[in-house]
Amino acid sequence: MAPELVELLSGNDVVAIAPALLGARLAVASPEGTVAVRLTEVEAYAGEIDPGSHAFRGRTARNSSMFEAAGRVYVYFTYGMHHCVNVVCGAEGVSRAVLLRAGEVVEGVDVARGRRPAARKDRDLARGPARLTSALGLTREDDGELLGGAGSRICLELAGPADAVPAELVRSGPRVGVAGPGGDGEAFPWRFWIDGDPTVSPYRAAARRK
């Protein structure tokens, strides 16, 4: 990883880190070809202090990658059918992570289309966390992998000065589908997105239990 990315991810303030990843480029290589997305929507999760986090109640076999030092991915399987990918932040043991919710496919569009045949338009290829992860070809087998370095097929690069997202376009609000206290938009307005970008996913509150 580039020094500036190492410095960013090494911090423990995931609420500051998450919006700084907007506009970043995440690329994943495979025998089919490389697919890269420009991140347009993310969510911050703060471990033991965050009731919306997978790590709120401590380490498990499923979430153990969240407790690693910054610079790895945490990939989990949800609803028995989807994978979602997070960037792990902070020092070892603090369990901070940024969920990558949406992006624009900027390389490998044909490969992404093959993985996401249900997408009617290219803007929908990585519009939502499960779609993004599918378009990139990431699975639970990639959980814990480093972002860059020898043998890694995953690379994350921050946006350069010419491509940086203007601060006035960054919006924040409640996280999508988070139930209970963690879904409180007043206390946890930790979803960040680029205003007006067509690849940003629609907001949905958590379903209420009957």
From TrEMBL:
InterPro entries: Formyl_transferase-like_C_sf (IPR011034), MPG (IPR003180), MPG_sf (IPR036995)
Catalytic activity, EC: 3.2.2.-
The organism of origin for this protein: Peptidiphaga gingivicola
SUPFAM superfamilies: FMT C-terminal domain-like (SSF50486)
Family, similarity comment: Belongs to the DNA glycosylase MPG family.
Protein name: Putative 3-methyladenine DNA glycosylase
GO molecular function terms listed in the Swiss-Prot or TrEMBL record: alkylbase DNA N-glycosylase activity; DNA binding
CDD domains: AAG
Main EC class the enzyme belongs to: hydrolase
Keywords recorded for this protein, A-Z: DNA damage, DNA repair, Hydrolase
GO BP terms: base-excision repair
